[in-house]
Design goal:
By secondary structure, the protein is α/β, with parallel strands linked by helices. The chain is 29% helix and 23% strand. It binds N-(aminocarbonyl)-beta-alanine and zinc ion (ZN) (2 copies).
């Protein structure tokens, strides 16, 4: 049924204005003042903001990783995203080094098709580049319509690639105009520091950050930039957590490197003290790169506000605390069924990642907009429009324009609530933001005109989303 949203404060990346929006046949049909459409359902949006659907450019829904599997599937993950106002997901397809890339992308797609309520696409993980890879990737681009890549300068032996593979991947992408997203750390340095710390008996979650300090991340960024400069590839650094990493990328931009910067919600709203919580609670906050001291978060907010940081995603990587994060608990070994080494656990065995796809927009609004760190249009830019532009989805997504998909978020700024595992839709047994007081909520959310959240409650059936074919270059 067509939907007429009346009297909204419409916020896009470029402007804020009062008006009405008519959504019909899945797209935005009219924008204006005093619109009438007797055949449409009418929603009074007085006192509410109307945003374009938010885009999360970095999620993991299906993720075999560190001896286990991420907890969400597309039913729970996309529902959680929508409850928080995110209407489009871009998932990392992460095959193991030994896996066939074409089979992998088909597997990842099968996890979403007919199940996802969000629209979705993928970044294709390149975890090996041998003589067969270019042909496989060309098929993935041409036939599977997946037009951005993902590489890891981390997780050696699992997803990480060697420098000759990095060079070949970036050259391949540069030739075809594909954006390469990259996790940047110095993987060898991480593994040496991990060994040293564990040998010294420093095994708790609080040692995760010291095993991957800011210099390790900055070095990874600088390394990627050197290769991007040499190949001409357009790169996108995912989950940038700290001052020297941003500075390394800014320096490369000045040299002409086409580099985008993503940060993620946990770096903005948490700090390194969380991983130091007693009784292994700190494991809930273990992700890579690690969450840093508060000054880095403060810096990232400023860099979002001035446009240096392009996007804020989540890197949603959901693992249960009790059965999965505890794989790294010192009391757990293989015979307890908890970790794959058979030896007592340590921080290197804690599955890396934080569930957050549901909370990103609320956190950005509460800690960003309400605290005066960013304005509403910056919120739209960093959480929607910029990702759409970088990844070939604009103006179908990330915009409130005639002809754009009717992905709309009606936001109630007066709502007051509290984040809790008891009420979230993600499948994990904990929330990293438990007890946090939030302002504002997604009251009504549509994907191509389908109302999937109504009055802040889930109104979907499942499977409403579709795979998005993107433009390149
Ligand atoms: O800790 C993280 N970030 N987990 C998910 C995998 C990745 O590196 O993106
Ligand atoms: Zn990563
Ligand atoms: Zn990730």
């Amino acid at each position: 049924m067509p939907l007429l949203i009346k009297n909204a404060t419409i916020v896009t990346a470029d402007e804020t204005f009062a008006g009405d929006v008519l959504a019909e046949d899945g797209v935005i049909k009219e924008i204006g003042a005093g619109l009438s459409a007797p055949h449409a359902e009418m929603i009074d949006a007085t006192g509410k903001y109307l945003f374009p659907g938010f885009i999360d450019p970095h999620v993991h829904i299906y993720l075999p990783f560190m001896g286990t599997f991420s907890k969400d599937d597309y039913a729970s993950g996309s529902k959680a995203a929508l409850m928080g106002g995110t209407t489009t997901l871009i998932e990392m397809c992460c095959p193991a080094r030994c896996e066939d890339p074409l089979e992998a992308i088909r597997l990842w797609k099968s996890k979403a098709a007919g199940i996802s309520s969000c629209d979705y696409t993928f970044h294709m993980g390149v975890t090996r580049f041998d003589e067969t890879t270019a042909e496989a990737l060309d098929i993935i681009v041409r036939e599977e319509k997946v037009t951005s890549l993902k590489i890891f300068l981390a997780y050696k032996g699992a997803f990480g690639i060697e420098d000759n593979e990095l060079y070949k991947t970036l050259s391949f992408a540069a030739d075809r105009g594909l954006v390469v997203t990259a996790h940047c750390e110095n993987a060898d340095l991480v593994s040496e520091r991990q060994k040293k710390l564990v040998a010294e008996g420093k095994t708790g979650p609080e040692w995760h950050e010291p095993s991957r300090p800011i210099s390790v991340e900055a070095d990874g960024c600088h390394h990627l930039m050197t290769f991007a400069e040499a190949t001409g590839a357009e790169v996108y650094v995912v989950h940038t957590s700290c001052i020297p990493a941003v500075e390394a990328i800014e320096a490369a931009r000045k040299r002409g490197v086409k580099a985008h910067i993503e940060t993620v919600a946990p770096y903005l709203t948490l700090d390194s003290s969380y991983a130091e919580l007693p009784d292994f609670e700190g494991a809930k906050f273990v992700m890579s790169p690690p969450i840093r001291e508060k000054k880095h978060g403060d810096f990232l907010w400023k860099k979002i506000a001035d446009g240096t940081v392009d996007t804020v995603g989540t890197d949603h990587a959901p693992f249960d605390f009790e059965t999965q994060k505890r794989m790294g608990h010192p009391e757990n070994a293989l015979d307890a069924g908890m970790n794959p080494t058979g030896k007592p656990g340590n921080f290197t065995l804690i599955p890396n990642g934080i569930p957050s796809v549901e909370e990103r927009v609320k956190l950005l609004y509460t800690d960003g907009v309400c605290e005066g760190k960013i304005d509403l249009q910056t919120l739209v830019r960093c959480a929607s429009t910029n990702a759409a532009k970088i990844f070939g989805l604009y103006p179908r997504k990330g915009a409130i324009q005639i002809g754009s998909d009717a992905d709309l978020v009606l936001w109630d700024p007066e709502y007051r609530g509290e984040i809790s595992v008891k009420t979230h839709s993600m499948a994990t047994d904990y929330s990293a933001f438990e007890g946090k007081k939030v302002k504002g909520c997604a009251e009504l959310v549509t994907v191509r005109g389908q109302v999937l959240v109504r009055d802040g409650e889930w109104a979907g059936k499942g499977g409403e989303g579709c795979f998005l074919v993107r433009s390149v270059g």
